[in-house]
C-alpha cells in the first residue's frame, strides 16, 4: 500500500475514497494526526497530514519518528512526500513541481534515528541516495502520463525553520549546491530509510527563496496560497496517475 504524507497546501486528498480514519499510537508518541485509509483510483492508499489536519504543527515540532513508525505499522510499501519549498535554482519558479534527488540537512535537534537509547546498538544506514530511485522514476513516469511538467532532480536543503531564511543564507545554500529549500524533508527521509521503506518526494515551489524574487523586498506571502492551491491540483493528478499505473 502506498502512503502519501501531505504538507502545506495538501492537508487532504479530495479524490480519496475514504474507507476509515485510524488514530494510532506508537512507541515514539503520537503521529501528526489520524491515518486516513482510502482508495485512489481503486488502489489502497493511506494519507497523513504532516502538520496535522488543522495545520497546527510547525516543521521542527513534527513527530517524524511517530509518523514514520505509524506508516511502518500500517505496512506501507512506499511513501511519497508532498512538500512545499522555496525555489533557489532560477528555473524553479513558483508553481514548479520537482522530484528531488539529493538532500543537504541543515536541521538540528530533531530526533533523526530509531536506533538510540541505552540498549540499542548503533546503526549507520547507507544514505548515499536519500530518495529511492525506482519510486522517483514512478513519479516522473506518472507525471509524463498525466501531461504535467515535473523537473527531474534537485538538491533539497532541509532547514530548521519555522522562520524563512535570510538572503545570505540562501546565497550560502546556493553555493552549497542546493536548488530548493524546505523545512520538513529531514529527518523524514532518513527515518523511512531506517525502516526500509522506499521514499521519494514531490516538491511544490511555493515562492522564490529569500532574495531570489525580481522584486527586492521580502517573500510575497499573498501569492503563496494561490500558487499552492493551483499546483496541488496538478500534484493530485500526478498521484492519480501513480495509482492508475
Ligand atoms: N524556505 C523554507 N521552506 C519553505 C520555503 C522557503 O522559502 N517555502 C516553502 N517552504
How many helices in DSSP terms?
Answer: 5
**Sheet of most strands:** 11 strands, mixed
Low-confidence stretches: none
Indicate the percent of residues in helices. 25-40%
Strand portion: 15-25%
CATH homology superfamily name: Nucleoside phosphorylase domain
CATH arch. level architecture: 3-Layer(aba) Sandwich
Shape: globular
Assembly type: single chain
First-to-last CA distance: 14 Å
Mean pLDDT: 93
Strand count = 11
What is the N-to-C succession of helices and strands?
EEEEHEEEHEEHEHEH
CATH topology call: Rossmann fold
Q: For the CA atoms, what is the radius of gyration?
A: 17 Å
Derived structural class: alpha/beta
CATH class: Alpha Beta
Associated small molecules: hypoxanthine
Domains (count):
1
Written description of the protein model:
- The longest helix is centred in the last third of the chain and has 24 residues, at 221-244.
- α2 crosses α5 (221-244).
- The chain contains 5 helices and 11 strands; from the N terminus they run ββββαβββαββαβαβα.
- The protein is α/β, with parallel strands linked by helices and 245 residues long.
- Strands 1, 2, 3, 4, 5, 6, 7, 8, 9, 10 and 11 form an 11-stranded mixed beta sheet that branches.
- The chain is globular.
- It has helices at residues 64-73, 133-146, 167-176, 185-194, 221-244; strands at 2-6, 17-22, 35-40, 43-49, 78-87, 97-99, 102-105, 151-152, 155-158, 180-182, 199-208.
- It has a single domain, classed as Nucleoside phosphorylase domain (Rossmann fold, 3-Layer(aba) Sandwich), CATH 3.40.50.1580.
- It binds hypoxanthine.
Outline of the structure:
The protein is 28% helix and 24% strand. It is α/β, with parallel strands linked by helices and 245 residues long. The chain has a single domain, classed as Nucleoside phosphorylase domain (Rossmann fold), CATH 3.40.50.
Amino acid at each position: 500500500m502506498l502512503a502519501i504524507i501531505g504538507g502545506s497546501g495538501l492537508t487532504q486528498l479530495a479524490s480519496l475514497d475514504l474507507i476509515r480514519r485510524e488514530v494510532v499510537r506508537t512507541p515514539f508518541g503520537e503521529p501528526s494526526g489520524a491515518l486516513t485509509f482510502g482508495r485512489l483510483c481503486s488502489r489502497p492508499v493511506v494519507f497523513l497530514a504532516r502538520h496535522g489536519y488543522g495545520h497546527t504543527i510547525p516543521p521542527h515540532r513534527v513527530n517524524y519518528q511517530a509518523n514514520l513508525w505509524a506508516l511502518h505499522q500500517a505496512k506501507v510499501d512506499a511513501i511519497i512526500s508532498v512538500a512545499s519549498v522555496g525555489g533557489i535554482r532560477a528555473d524553479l519558479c513558483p508553481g514548479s513541481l520537482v522530484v528531488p534527488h539529493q538532500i543537504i540537512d541543515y536541521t538540528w535537534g530533531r530526533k533523526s534515528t530509531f536506533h538510540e537509547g541505552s540498549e540499542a546498538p548503533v546503526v549507520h544506514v547507507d544514505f548515499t541516495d536519500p530518495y529511492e530511485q525506482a519510486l522517483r522514476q514512478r513519479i516522473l513516469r506518472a507525471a509524463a502520463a498525466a501531461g504535467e511538467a515535473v523537473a527531474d532532480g534537485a538538491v533539497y536543503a532541509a532547514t530548521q525553520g519555522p522562520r524563512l531564511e535570510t538572503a545570505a543564507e540562501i546565497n550560502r545554500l546556493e553555493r552549497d549546491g542546493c536548488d530548493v529549500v524546505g523545512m520538513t524533508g529531514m529527518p523524514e527521509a532518513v527515518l523511512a530509510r531506517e525502516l526500509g521503506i522506499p521514499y521519494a518526494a514531490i516538491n511544490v515551489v511555493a515562492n522564490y527563496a529569500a532574495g531570489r524574487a525580481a522584486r527586492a523586498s521580502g517573500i510575497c506571502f499573498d501569492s503563496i496560497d494561490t500558487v499552492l492551491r493551483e499546483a496541488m491540483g496538478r500534484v493530485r493528478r500526478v498521484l492519480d496517475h501513480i495509482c492508475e499505473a
